[in-house]
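Lab meeting, item 3. Inverse folding demo.
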């Protein structure tokens, strides 16, 4: 804003203000700006905010040359606005001038006008109608400045008491006030920022018949599995599509073109004669069974996230009722989905242009249908293959009536689309974490999470039904533990697809990232009770996350130097409590690694080189560190230190 005082470089501002920034209830949101004017007079700044149920203002703190910072803590879900006002601060200018003149030895006659100016500033505040409580204090200070019987230093000291300074700071004289532009922040509920996700297929929870043949699971059998998931400390249970699965062009096991008579098909081939996106697969049960599943999840402290895939099987009811909602080929047939060289003959993509109004209305109806059945989180499949304008419309149409609903974008796409979808309104986004393995890659990735915190929240899934990361292929049990640790401590939100905790790493073909016997195309009952499992470590990670607020927000992530490329070190600090958690993770799943960590102690509020204590949440031991600390990690015993700084 260019006024009498210049206000520029305001943050958080997303895409020049075209889209709102993002925060959650209770989050400490940093506001910053550059404020300046001509000459040498002091300037100051105030942040003014307004939320759904009220607002406020706060004086900003100087931060470097011409910089100012402040923090706001929103307390309600919804749209918030803020602006930064810049102004000339005559009291600060006067104080600096008087200090310099007294230090130079100027006498009372030379300071006559200066004392009068200071008294006048005190009186301007004292006689404000809203400042009666400070009036006597400020008028006494003004009288002291005019008291010729005192020495200049005595007069100045009498007006510079802590009480006077506090009053003049809290109720300043603001000259040449320039009101800045108004910017927006959308504030979500806390689950938008912090949560641990567990993905499971209800149809795989039926166990096995005496013959060993898998039995199709139901919402009832899946409901019994919720206790196990809750016991591991997860917050969200995510279900792939639960709708009827198409029979036309159904895929067989491992994505085979021809399905056998007992093949169950891909849940993402949505729709059959039993219904479409608003129906449940009859083999899973009825809608009442789904409602009971959601209710039981809530009893255990779990939310249910539902997959939202806007695509259809060839026998979806929409195909016959609304053929105009689909793309047609030159021969008049409906086009199936392709991502060359991959073909998805069992899926028809939608055409969002031929009848945009009709399709939009139906999609919104479907979303509201599931909201009515207790779903408040949607994991959106491949949003980067649908029009951006559609998502912008749908998300904000939903939030207008249901501001607590969250949307996760499953978009493993280039940065333009990844961040673009986030700006359009997606609450969270899948990220490139899956393919970031080295210390340099992980550091760059983590720094981008912080840099983009105002526009994108990353959900760090360690695996998905589509992706068996190379980082866990042939890397043993420690490879799984390392990836879980990195995901759970680098981001406030992370996710696990079932089977990860059982160290499933069998690949369909060498050199690929596809699971053999993919659960996308067949039932995969698992013996969680007796199988060797990573569950104890996953549980401990989630316990640590819930216990320590430093791991529940994104902005306070800082990386620190190590002299070993197989060790990565970072700190997480919570601005509200001041808590800091220090993490050192080995990136080698096979060999013991040792080295020195050079902690930048100023990043978490300590003097450089100061001794400090940490409580390791992994070993439950106390260590004394001083900022240049030796560590050793043997992946056979522990893959990380996750240590809380013990504050005096």
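The presenter then showed the designed sequence:
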């Amino acid at each position: 804003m260019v006024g009498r005082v210049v206000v520029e470089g305001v943050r958080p501002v997303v895409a020049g203000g075209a889209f709102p920034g993002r925060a959650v209830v209770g989050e400490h949101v940093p506001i910053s700006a550059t404020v300046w004017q001509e000459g040498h007079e002091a300037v100051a700044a105030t942040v003014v905010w307004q939320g759904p149920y009220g607002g406020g203002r706060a004086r900003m703190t100087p931060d470097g040359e011409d910089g100012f910072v402040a923090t706001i803590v929103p307390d309600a879900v919804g749209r918030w606005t803020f602006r930064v006002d810049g102004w000339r601060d005559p009291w600060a200018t006067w104080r600096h001038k008087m200090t310099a003149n007294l230090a130079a030895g100027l006498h009372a006659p030379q300071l006559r006008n200066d004392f009068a100016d200071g008294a006048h500033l005190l009186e301007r505040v004292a006689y404000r109608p809203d400042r009666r409580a400070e009036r006597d204090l400020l008028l006494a200070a003004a009288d002291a400045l005019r008291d010729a019987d005192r020495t200049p230093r005595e007069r100045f000291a009498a007006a510079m008491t802590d009480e006077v300074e506090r009053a003049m700071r809290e109720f300043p004289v603001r000259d040449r006030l320039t009101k800045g532009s108004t910017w927006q922040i959308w504030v979500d509920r806390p689950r938008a920022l912090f949560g641990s996700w567990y993905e499971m297929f209800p149809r795989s929870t039926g166990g096995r018949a005496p013959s060993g043949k898998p039995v199709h699971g139901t919402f009832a059998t899946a409901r019994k599995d919720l206790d196990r998931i809750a016991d591991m400390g997860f917050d969200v249970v995510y279900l792939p599509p639960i709708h009827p699965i198409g029979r036309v062009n159904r895929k067989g096991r491992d994505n085979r073109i021809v399905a056998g008579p007992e093949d169950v098909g891909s849940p993402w081939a949505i729709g059959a004669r039993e219904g479409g996106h608003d129906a449940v697969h009859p083999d899973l049960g009825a809608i009442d069974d789904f409602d009971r599943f959601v209710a039981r999840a809530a009893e255990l402290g779990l939310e249910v996230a539902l997959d939202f895939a806007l695509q259809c099987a060839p026998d979806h009811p929409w195909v016959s009722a609304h053929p105009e909602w689909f793309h047609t080929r030159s021969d008049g047939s409906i086009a199936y989905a392709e991502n060359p060289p991959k073909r998805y003959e069992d899926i028809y993509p939608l055409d969002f242009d031929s009848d945009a109004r009709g399709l939009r209305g139906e999609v919104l109806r479907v979303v509201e249908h599931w909201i009515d059945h207790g779903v408040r989180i949607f994991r959106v499949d491949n949003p980067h293959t649908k029009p951006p304008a559609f998502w912008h419309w749908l998300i904000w149409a939903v939030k207008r009536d249901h501001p607590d609903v969250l949307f996760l974008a499953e978009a493993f796409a280039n940065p333009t689309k990844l961040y673009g979808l986030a700006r359009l309104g997606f609450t969270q986004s899948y990220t490139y974490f899956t393919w970031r393995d080295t210390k340099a890659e992980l550091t760059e990735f983590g720094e981008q999470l912080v840099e983009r915190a105002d526009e994108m929240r990353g959900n760090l899934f360690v695996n998905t039904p589509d992706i068996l990361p190379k980082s866990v292929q042939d890397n043993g049990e420690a490879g799984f533990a390392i990836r879980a640790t990195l995901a759970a401590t680098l981001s406030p939100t992370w996710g696990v697809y079932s089977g990860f905790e059982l160290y499933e790493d069998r690949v369909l073909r060498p050199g690929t990232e596809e699971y053999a016997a993919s659960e996308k195309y067949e039932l995969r009952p698992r013996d969680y009770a007796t199988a060797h499992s990573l569950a104890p470590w996953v549980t401990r990670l989630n316990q640590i996350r819930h216990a320590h607020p430093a791991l529940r927000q994104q902005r306070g992530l800082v990386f620190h130097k190590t002299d070993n490329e197989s060790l990565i070190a970072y700190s997480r600090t919570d601005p509200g409590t001041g808590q800091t958690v220090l993490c050192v993770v080995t990136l080698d799943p096979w060999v013991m690694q040792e080295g020195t960590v050079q902690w930048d102690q100023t990043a978490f509020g300590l003097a450089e080189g100061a001794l400090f204590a940490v409580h390791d949440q992994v070993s439950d031991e106390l260590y004394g560190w001083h900022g240049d600390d030796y560590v050793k990690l043997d992946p056979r015993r522990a893959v990380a230190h996750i240590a809380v700084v013990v504050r005096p």
